[in-house]
Specification:
Layout (H helix, E strand, L loop, with lengths): L2 E2 L4 E6 L5 E7 L13 H7 L17 E4 L1 E2 L2 E2 L4 E6 L21 H8 L16 H13 L5 E9 L8 H11 L5 E8 L13 H10 L4 E6 L10 H4 L18 E2 L2 E2 L4 E7 L9 E5 L4 E5 L10 H23 L1
Antiparallel strand pairs: 1-2, 2-3, 3-7, 4-7, 5-6, 8-9, 9-13, 10-13, 11-12, 14-15
Helix pairs in contact: 1-3, 1-7, 3-7, 5-7
């Protein structure tokens, strides 16, 4: 289903090459100050055409708030955001009904929806849909006073030297290939006690949202998988004071699914953009055999570049939902 959340409920709608994409956000407290301009800084961080490794497709990404707002304040009714799709080239996807792209949802979507799905740009499975998540995340931050977010791209294609990123991206663009990347998100100032045990732990709710982002294949909190290679004596976060601050933060600011007052730190792994310009042998339903496919369209050399702010939005939405439950 395309809905998520408990105290803050999200419903996502639209397709990559449809007329609009959007989101309905239910549960925003009445009286929250809000304007379309409030959303623009985060939306600019996600916009295509802004770096050497991002898609040439550019959209204005100007949000229209069409419900739940009066005189600059939320009314308590669901807030609906709309984004127009204008820079479209649906002809780039004409051949994909029968010749599905590797590592995309083309074939699985056709199987699920009996071939009635929209294949243009991936339809509702496209990264285009994340524009609405970023806008919702910007609203969620308004519900989290005192919390600041720091997000950075730490790795592209196995290289952790940011001085080499532009060189790597330029080379990928020349070769028509792509690379994966790792993004780290930190939230400072999260109230100790935020979160619920077991199924609605901070990790559970955040990971649910993060794994909904197209292209994310891995999520870890704190030391993550590195903790599995340590001993307890080296990994334990010793408590430094009565406020619960610790000398280290290997648990990523969470114990028992509950925020412990330290920074919440997570990392996400984005796979390489599967749409590449290089020819690929892949199954063609018209012949019943694999045949070369050259993918048209405009695509990112590394989706982690624009995906970083989407991961940040997902954490903000998770924390807002959990914080509203506390009252």
């Amino acid at each position: 289903m395309n809905s998520f959340g408990t105290a803050l409920r999200l419903t996502l709608f639209g397709e990559s090459h449809g007329p609009q994409v959007g989101i309905v956000i239910d549960g925003i407290p009445a009286g929250t100050p809000l304007s379309e301009e409030d959303l623009l800084p985060d939306l600019a961080r996600r916009r295509g055409g802004s770096s050497i490794g991002s898609t040439p497709r550019t959209e204005q990404d100007r949000p229209a708030i069409v419900s739940g707002l009066l005189n600059g304040r939320t009314t308590g009714a669901p807030v609906t955001l709309l984004f127009a799709n204008s820079n479209l080239r649906p002809q780039d996807y004409d051949a994909l009904r029968n010749h599905c792209r590797p590592s995309h949802a083309d074939m699985t979507a056709a199987a699920k929806y009996g071939g009635y799905n929209d294949p243009r740009g991936g339809g509702m499975f496209s990264g285009r849909m994340t524009v609405a998540l970023v806008a919702a995340g910007a609203i969620a931050k308004k519900l989290l006073p005192g919390i600041t977010f720091t997000t950075r791209l730490t790795e592209i294609g196995g290289t952790a030297d940011p001085d080499r990123f532009d060189e790597l991206l330029a080379d990928l663009r020349r070769r028509g290939d792509s690379a994966g990347g790792i993004v780290e998100v930190a939230a400072q100032g999260v109230t100790r006690g935020t979160g619920e045990p077991f199924f609605d732990s901070v990790e559970s709710v955040a990971a649910h949202l993060l794994f909904a982002i197209p292209g994310i294949k891995g999520v870890e909190f704190g030391a993550g998988f590195a903790a599995a290679r340590r001993t307890g004596s080296t990994n334990n976060d010793r408590i430094a004071d009565a406020a619960g601050h610790t000398f280290t933060n290997n648990d990523g600011g969470i114990n028992g699914g509950i925020a412990n007052g330290n920074d919440i730190i997570l990392r996400v792994a984005f796979k390489p953009t599967p749409s590449i310009a290089l020819p690929q042998e892949t199954f063609d339903a018209r012949t019943g055999q694999p045949s070369p496919l050259v993918i048209q369209g405009r695509h990112d050399a590394c989706i982690a570049l624009r995906g970083a702010v989407v991961a940040e939005a997902a954490l903000a939405l998770a924390l807002a939902d959990l914080s509203l439950r506390r009252g």
